[in-house]
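Hi again,

Forgot to attach this to my earlier email, sorry! This is the prediction with iron/sulfur cluster bound. I've pasted everything inline since the attachment limit keeps bouncing my files.
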Amino acid sequence: MNHTSEKSGGLGSLPLIASAHEAGADLVWDRFDRQQPQCGFGSLGSCCRICSMGPCRIDPFDKGAQRGVCGADIDTISARTFARMVAGGTAAHSDHGRDVTQIFLAAARGESPDYAIKDVMKLTKLALDYGIQVEGRKVNDIAVELGEKIALEFGQQEGELRFINRAPLKRQEIWRGLGVVPRGIDREVVETMHRTTMGVDQDYRSLLLQATRTSLADGWGGSMITTELQDILFGTPYPTVSRVNLGVLREDQVNIVVHGHEPLLSEMIVVASRDKQMLEYAKGKGASGINIAGICCTANEILMRHGIPIAGNMLQQELAVTTGVVEAMIVDVQCVMQSLSDVARCFHTKVITASPKANIPGTVHIEFDEHRALDSAKEIVKTAIDNFPCRSGKTHIPAESMDMVAGFSHETISYMLGGLFRASYRPLNDNIINGRIRGVAGVVGCNNPKVPLDENHLTMVKELIANDVLVLQTGCSAIACAKAGLLVPEAASKYAGKGLAEVCETVGIPPVLHMGACVDNSRLLVAATAMVKEGGLGDDISDLPVAGAAPEWMSEKAIAIGQYFVASGVFTVFGVTWPTLASEGTTDYLFKEMGNIFDGGTWAFEPDPNKAAQLMIDHIDSKRKSLGIDKARERILYDMEMRRELEGG
Ligand code: BF8
Ligand code: SF4
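Structure tokens for the complex follow:
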């Protein structure tokens, strides 16, 4: 077995890898191997190429080379690089949010007739948050005013972003005291780019505070806006059953894989694929239907709202093409590999780029026009159908697919636990206090070819639920665990500890809850705040027995997310590699100092997922101790001990 086979996620992938290689296609793991050895300076974050006096690199073993040409030291270089990663991630989430805001406004004004306001209750709630008069007004008028106010927050120059005041009061005071409350979304991203350019901010602490302000403009700004407006436009998710993994592709149907992040496009592709005319057209080409499946976060979006199956997570994008049954892979923005066009050339798949922001040579570009969204989507679907007869003889759909339940928005969790009429987090808090649930962990983020596909996610999540930690998930991590069967209610009795299993079985939920795409990490912030506000678990997010992790992270977006988790008071562990290890100052600040300055919340780096899970459990236990609820937990352990003794005797 070569390296590629070992890392690509088990037996189901092997025939696909073989057929890719036979067809002359390269896969991500092949390219990863050819990149070895990767640069040590880059890996530890000790190089800078911000200006052309460089590139400079700080060699930790060469005392003569401790400064860049401009005099920048390793802490500055490292903090600048880290801050730029945060800015990149924040820009990605927030620019997505800007597109959603524009379509929301167009829909409210009647300029994008294929989109509509679906969740009026959520619209009303949000309008009230923004101080908008709702009584006696038409839904669309409220929406226009709300959309205009939200749109202004991207370019806002002074003041505070609105959702900052959703956080626990104590957290808001900490942020205000440190001067890290974001003033406007774009402003923080631009200021970070300015302060990190040659010869500007050269104190790593000050750079990292600005990085924090930028990350908060993501989590409590751009990402939260995206989630809220998408819910209003497309519906707030509720639990939905579906299937996951490459086995969801269909031999007899036109397979369209949507890949990327913005549901503006994928939602319309779903509608177009159900159109009678389109279905007739597909039949005319010899297909029995049109099968839509997703990759990456746009998959999570349409899964949660329509039960559309998921073909795979980030590292499976090329494998999907090698099945030979994908007529079209439609991509918009983020996490799309340029190599898709090369792999697709070896098969019949058409890669269709649809966003004016993301072009790839060698693909078909059909620009998605949101103002005539359904027609655009139909044009794309028709192109896929036309490609159905072009399949060459050899196809291979892996047998693997798995049931899953998704769609646990913050609202659903409170309904499910508290009941429709008394929706609340009280039962969750009570079960944490009585020790049945030890704590809550958010396990999120990407795949990374540096580790075997999904392995870190699975090891960590299994360890957490076995120890009675309820796991909340988004992004590729959620897809990883879904493939392994952790996102079904039956997983509770199979994998969860006794206390957690008892709660899950009573309510009928899995021990691992799918909360959406990566922008929906904002739902985790809202859920954590709801736990604080419910009472009994302290008065800030940093008091809660909770922890966060991204065990296979790769994207700048993950760094932005981690930074706003930490700044919000959450202990957060990342795996694989850590981008500031060359700098003692920056690393120390993120791993220790932030905990003091931000009153809780620090980063940790631990590549071993078992050890990382243990760090999370230790943190949860220390929080239980501070809250004085560690006794309840001990009693449960004692009971189990007793039972074992009884059984043994
Ligand atoms: O935004 S988890 S690999 S797909 S970056 Fe990308 Fe990472 Fe997946 Fe979704 Ni999030
Ligand atoms: Fe080198 Fe300074 Fe230029 Fe960076 S900014 S490349 S450290 S001279």
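The first strand starts at residue 47 and ends at 48. The pocket of iron/sulfur cluster (ligand 2) is lined by residues 48-51, 53-56, 68-70, 72, 77, 198 (CB under 6 Å).

That should be everything now.

G.
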